[in-house]
Design a protein that fits this description.
258 residues; alpha/beta; seven-stranded mixed β-sheet; six-stranded antiparallel barrel; 6 helices; 15 strands; 36% strand
């Protein structure tokens, strides 16, 4: 288990990627601690009178060359909107790295990384690390429209990118589980993050095909350390805290029946 840190990180830039999403790039004077794909950060939101708890944000990417941590933030409430208002030179207090990430195994020849919405965030760093290991990476990214597909130029650096949109404006029309690649190609491992209905649909597909599958759960979290018990998930091993035992789980450990 990696050591946890509480650090004041400097804001390098805040990039508006979409009307609802910003990319926050952070750095530090000293080298950033080791982080694994699928782990997350608990961010303190200073200056927001209605935000009392830290906000959990997935690690989007770690740029070791420039000593940067990237956070892809969806503006869904007062806390995340306040984060989006940060500017270059501001400081952000982060507790990191938290949770257990995705399985990293060079033995898996072809890996499919499936994401939807802000759930695409942890897949970028995961794809980068897998590519370094010599893994054949395919991204399958789903969104409502072409405007909602995020960071495509970054994903293409690390693997083939397939897309679905609900309106057919980019890629194939429909949901990720309708993409023709799932029925024409074989993958050795599927790793997934996104809305729960999407992940459950991917899990059903993986079971039908007999492919190992991991999902990153997005249960509501507060403390990030397994103390408050608000993110509990029922599993084959009993009730587990997603923030501490996850957020990544093999689907065989989950009691998903639908």
């Amino acid at each position: 288990m990696l050591r946890k840190y509480v650090l004041d990180l400097d804001v390098v830039a805040v990039e508006q990627l979409h009307e609802r999403y910003v990319l926050i790039r952070l750095t530090a004077d000293a080298p950033l601690p080791e982080m694994r794909p699928g782990q997350f950060v608990e961010v303190r939101v200073d200056g927001s009178p209605s935000t009392f708890l830290r906000r959990p944000i997935s690690i989007n990417f770690v740029d070791k060359t420039n000593n940067e941590l990237w956070l892809l933030v969806a503006m869904v409430g007062e806390g995340t909107r306040h984060l989006a208002s940060l500017r270059q030179g501001d400081r952000l207090n982060c507790m990191l790295p938290l949770g257990n990430g995705f399985t990293l195994s060079g033995q898996a020849g072809r890996v499919l990384l499936v994401g939807g919405g802000v759930g695409v965030a942890p897949l970028l760093y995961l794809g980068a690390v897998l590519k370094e290991q010599g893994v054949d990476v395919t991204f399958l990214l789903g969104a409502r429209t072409s405007k909602d597909l995020l960071m495509l130029e970054h994903f293409r650096q690390f693997g083939r990118v397939l897309m679905t949109t609900e309106d057919g404006s980019s890629g194939e029309k429909g949901f990720v589980t309708n993409h023709t690649s799932l029925y024409k190609e074989h993958f050795d491992l599927i790793q997934c993050c996104g809305p729960t209905p999407m992940m459950k649909a991917v899990a059903r597909y993986a079971r039908e095909k007999g492919v190992s599958c991991e999902v990153s759960l997005e249960n509501l979290m507060a403390c990030g350390l397994g103390a408050c018990l608000c993110c509990v998930e029922k599993t084959t091993e009993g009730n587990l805290c997603v923030c501490k035992e996850g957020p990544v789980f093999n689907i065989d450990r989950l009691l998903w029946q639908d």
